[in-house]
Amino acid sequence: MTQRVVSIPPLNEFRLELDVNEELSIRLVEGRAELNGCELSLEKSLALKDELKCSIYTWTGCKLEITGQSLVEYTSNETPLITYLNLHLAFEQQRIKARNTQSDFKPSPEKPNERLPGYVNAVDASSSGYRVMVIGQEDSGKSTLSKTLLNYAARTGKGWTPIFVNLDPSDGGPLPPGTLSATAYSTSTQTTSPVNAFGSCSTSGAALDNSAALIPQALPYAHASPARNPKVYKILLEALARRLDMRLERDAKARSSGVFIDTPAAFTSANIGSDDKNSKYDLIKHALHAFRVDVLLVIGHEKLYIEMQRLLKSLDANIAQNIKILKVPKSGGAVETDDAYRSRIQAAQIKSFFYGNMSNISDEQLSPQSMTIKIDNLKVFKITEDKVAPSSALPIGASRVLENTQLERVNFESSSQLLTLVHSLLYLVKWPDSNNVLNKHAKEFEGDIDSKDLIRADLVGFLIVTAIDSAKRTITVLAPSPGRLPSLNAVFGSFEWQDT
Question: Where, in this chain's numbering, is ATP bound (predicted)?
Fold first, then answer.
C-alpha cells in the first residue's frame, strides 16, 4: 500500500473522499487535529472506509501518516470551523448559565400531562440549554455540523450529556434507517464510516460489550423521506417531542446540556406537509413548535435564510420571540451524493445493526439469530404512501377527510401481501400502555388492532423477513439476538435488505 506523510498548516483542513471498496489508514504523528470535532489520538491509526467523505481540521498544524489510496484528497484553508467554534462557545455559555440557575422539576400527580407540548412550560428557559435545529439542502453538511457541536460539548470535560434528535429517516443515526430518534451523548464519537456516523446502539445486550453503546428512544417511520407520508411523519415528530420533553424535565443534566436536531433535506421543500399551496415550510413550522426550538441554523443558502425570517413573522408570537435564526456557511468540502450511494449506505447500516462491522475484524462482531414465527402470532401493519388528489380536483364544496395514520394491516390470507414482506425490515413496536400519559386516548388493544394510536408506539426492535412458508403458515426472520422477541406487533414500509 502507498504510504505518505501529509503536512497540514494551521487553520486548514485535509479533505478526503473514498471510493467504493477503498480503505484508508491515517495516523497523527505530530501536532493536533480533529475529525468532526473529535480529537485524533497521537500515534494511533484510524481506519476510514465505506465511501467516507470527511475533513480533518487542525488549529495548530499537524502531520498525518496516510496509508492507502483515496479517490480525492487535498488541503484547503476555506473552512467553516471557526464559525462552528463560535457557535459552540455561545451554546456553552448557555449550558453553564442553565446549570447554575436550574431547579429540579417535580410534576404534579394530579396533572401528569401539564408538561407536554400545548401546555405552559413551568421550567424556566434560562435553566435549559439551547434547543438547536439545523436545516439545509441535500448534502449541505447538516449532520457534520450537528456532530461537531456534539463532540465539542463532550470535549469540554464538564460532563454534559446533550441529546441528538435525528429527524432524517433516510439516515437512522445510531439506528437503521426509517427511524426518528433521540439519543443522549456523554462522550465524543469518532467518524470512521458513514455507516456508523453517530455511533452504534446496543443491539445484543451482553453480547455487545461496549460501554459507549447508545440507547436511543425511537419511533418507526419506515420510509426514507417525509414526503412519502407527511401526515404520519408529523404525528411521529410530535410524539418524539413529547417524549423528549418528559425526559428533559426529569433529567437536570440533559436539560442544561441542550438539544441538537438534525433534519432531512425535505424540510427545505416549501410545499411538503400541507395541502394548502399558500402554506409553506409546514414541516419546519411543525418542528419549531413541537420541539420549542431556540436557535435555527440555516446552512449555506441565502434564499432559505430569507424565507425563514419571513416564516418567523407568520408564527405565533409566543413561539417566534424565542427563536434566533443564524446563517452558517456551507463547507467547501461538502460532497454531493446520489441515490445509489445513499442506498448502499442504508443497506450497510441495516447489515451493521444485525452483524456488526464486518469490514474490520478488530471491531465487535454480533451474532444474529434466525427464528421461525407462526403467522397467526404476528401482527404486521404497513405505513402506506400518502397518495391523494389535490384539493382542486374535489367537487365544488367538498372537503377531504383523511385517515391520520394510513396504516394497513397485512392480510396473511393473501399470498400476494405475504410476498411483499420477504426481505422487508420490520420495526417492532410496543402497544401504548393504558396508563401512558403520552397518549390520553391509549387503552388496552384487545380486539382494537387498527387503532391510530399504534403509530405513536415505541420502537423496541428490528427483524428482517428472510422466508415465508404459506403452507406451514410460518415466517422466518433474522433477529439481532437470541431469546424472546420484545413484541409481536410490527410495522414496515419501503426498506428492505437481502444478504448478498
Answer: 13, 53, 139-144
